[in-house]
Amino acid sequence: MGRLFHPVTIRNSRIDGNIFLAPLAGYTDKAFRTMCIDTGASLTYSEMVSAEGIIRENRKTLELLTPAEGEHFFGVQIFTGHTDSAARSVEHVLRFNPSLIDLNCGCPVPKVVRSGAGAALLKDPEKLGRIVRSISGNTDVPVTVKIRTGWDEDSLNYIETAQAARENGAAMICLHGRTRKQGYSGSAGLEHIKQLKEYMDIPVFGSGDLFTPEAVRFMLENTGCDGVMIARGAIGNPFIFQQCRSLLEGSVPPADADDTQKIEAALKHLDLSIHYAGEARAVKEMRKHLCAYTKGIEGGAALRNRLVHTSNTAEIKSILSSFMTR
Ligand SMILES: Cc1cc2nc3c(=O)[nH]c(=O)nc-3n(C[C@H](O)[C@H](O)[C@H](O)COP(=O)(O)O)c2cc1C
Hints:
It is a single chain. The chain has helices spanning about 30-40, 50-55, 60-65, 85-95, 110-115, 125-135, 160-165, 190-200, 215-225, 240-250, 260-275, 280-295, 300-310, 315-325, and strands spanning about 10, 15, 20, 45-50, 75-80, 100-105, 145-150, 170-180, 205, 225-230. It is an alpha/beta fold and about 325 residues long. The chain has two domains: about 10-250, TIM Barrel (Alpha-Beta Barrel); about 260-325, Non-ribosomal Peptide Synthetase Peptidyl Carrier Protein, Chain A (Orthogonal Bundle). Helix 7 (about 160-165) links the parallel strand 7 (about 145-150) and strand 8 (about 170-180). The model has no long low-confidence stretch (mean pLDDT about 95).
């Protein structure tokens, strides 16, 4: 613990540290979250979950709301463009005891935006506020809101959207320093996070381009933000949490994982995925993770080629293990 790595209080919730795993659709399931908690993530978020799906009690949707075993600090992120759905989803979400409930106001995917959810809310701060109110008015669990800087570079309205969220009960804002139009390209603007932090009286977290522990330190030091959410930087690389904690605490961070450590992590992740999702789904879910773990390792392309043509977990394990002992 220190000046940059420290506990954070989000309304009535005290989280032990300020390095979170960001919500990542298709990635942040129980297995991946466990990998990140084991390496030091202070809190993890579910992937974005549809409020309408929650209300329908769709089995697969409800599964996304479940914390992993021993997961103490877990946020559920919902998305919706409707106040009534938001309000009605809360009682279902609360059954799973989340530490936080987050509203997604940044998703750029056309299908989501067309439904009035995700980044579409940036265009209508008043409606954003009403949706936040319909969540915060129905629970004591702190409500957090994840926004982008604006719809496009001509409409940078993050101060206004954050203010609308704050006035309607949001207890923390996370700003991804890109516009909706930028998607995930270009670089994320730290100056916006700095400006928002100066303006807000609730915790402000930053997101965007956090691929190394040095980038995390740079964001914390140069924006004054209260914490960060690591996103793509953790895929295939949960070691980043360990490295961040060491660096922020002033010690020399562990070196980047070598090939053996990456394969060991892939094997552990596979076991967790089998545990939580069963053999068949684990094969499917793990494909993208296995590609990420083996990126940049010697002979990685040939290894990936073998892995993606396999449809049973025993064979995946044997391919990975034989790679380690070659
Ligand atoms: C594959 C993928 C899935 C994502 N899913 C979500 C999501 O479900 N909810 C959300 O708020 N942001 C989501 N994001 C955005 C990230 O949380 C993060 O804000 C963004 O990637 C910027 O951080 P980075 O540049 O460090 O990756 C997603 C990003 C990616 C690449």
